[in-house]
């Protein structure tokens, strides 16, 4: 469903992505892992064009965009991609002046122009899905970090995206609260939700992902099934990275 071909991206004189290619099949979960600064979050943001690649091709469903240095991507092309994606950020980004229910309803009401009754019914169903229906009338400031992230997931799902993109969804949470989010993402994966998750949380990646892409210095070092990457990686660099994380987690 998603195909990235020869994607490159630089910031100033620093090349963050270097000729990256990958495919994401519908109904599968792909985890982007690697050391800090390896390019995983930038690659994720290129999928919904929050960052515009310098070169390469992006295809999402039937929409495709080619990127060339100095060429500006048109608004219609951007929207054809963005309308198919939902984004979950590491710092939640809920509207503080909206209740939990209103946060989830916001896009349905303002973008899709749904009647309030229809939007509220759909939003409440999504809150049930992420186990937050009991906080529908609460303000974001009264919620724990794990609860805020689950609301953010519900809000991202409200527009019925073809793919859910998660940028370090557990990085701002302590282990107990992170578990709440991992459980919700695992539930969505079990329901066949297509997801791409940029994460340094190897527990999340190994539990939820079908496929894993290991990035370092803006390049794909190795990609394959979750079982392969975490259990029998081909590249020594991949094995060393996964091993170091496992040792750190066991020590914690």
Automatic annotation (TrEMBL):
It comes from the Bacteria. Keywords: ATP-binding, Cell membrane, Membrane, Nucleotide-binding, Transport. InterPro entries: AAA+_ATPase, ABC_ATPase_HisP-typ, ABC_transporter-like_ATP-bd, ABC_transporter-like_CS, MetN_ABC_transporter-like, P-loop_NTPase. It comes from Pseudorhizobium endolithicum. It holds the Pfam family ABC_tran. One of its GO terms (molecular function) is ATP binding. The keyword Ribonucleoprotein does not apply. The lineage of its organism: Bacteria, Pseudomonadati, Pseudomonadota, Alphaproteobacteria, Hyphomicrobiales. Residues 2-242 form the ABC transporter domain. This is ATP-binding protein. Its main location: membrane. Signal peptide: none annotated. It is found in: Cell membrane. Belongs to the ABC transporter superfamily. The keyword Membrane applies. It is a peripheral membrane protein.
